[in-house]
Amino acid sequence: MRIDIISVLPELIESPFNASILKRAIDKQIIEICFHDLKKYASNKRKQVDDYQYGGGSGMVMMIEPIKKCIDLLKKQRTYDEIIYMSPDGKMLNQKISNQLSLKGNLIILCGHYKGVDQRVRDSLITMEISIGDYVLSGGELPAAVLCDSIIRLIPGVLGDETSALTDSYQDNLLAPPVYTRPSTFEDLKVPEILLSGDQLKIENWREEKAIERTRKLRPDIFD
To answer: In terms of CATH architecture, what is 2-152?
Structure first.
């Protein structure tokens, strides 16, 4: 998979890809990440990519011209499955969306900034809009990093144990059950005996019961 990320401040998003699971995925050539500084596609000497909004009002708006130039150049080089705009009013990111995107070949992610992008970008260039929550950040760089992480970890070969992602919260519309590790007893806190029993069938049944119990208690909205 290749993901091209377009941003006015690409340095804000580069760091997460330089460590841990994302870096290993890149080093193993399972995933290719390319950052594109939108200012390089500006047509004026000041490298301006934003301007005042028509009709008045506070906040600058990202211009359509440099965005289209960048996307057009990328599309000449390869076919993209989705061109995604990170926006607080996009579709809320969930595990189902991450699962679907992890099966794609090439993605473009456009990071919004300032007051957002010219609506004509959204109308004519974008195929998918994604939000990571009902709140507003300074830009789309951090949400783009969140989206990438949620996608990349699902690609075969990225995690050491490929079954790990399949037991995460939300994969089966349930929260994950509680997990424990050594020591089995710490002060007066003990690991549930069933997890030490070695009876895998009983353990799996216990985990399913706890997953249902936790979901009903903590997220009744998804349980329903």
So the answer is: 3-Layer(aba) Sandwich (3.40)
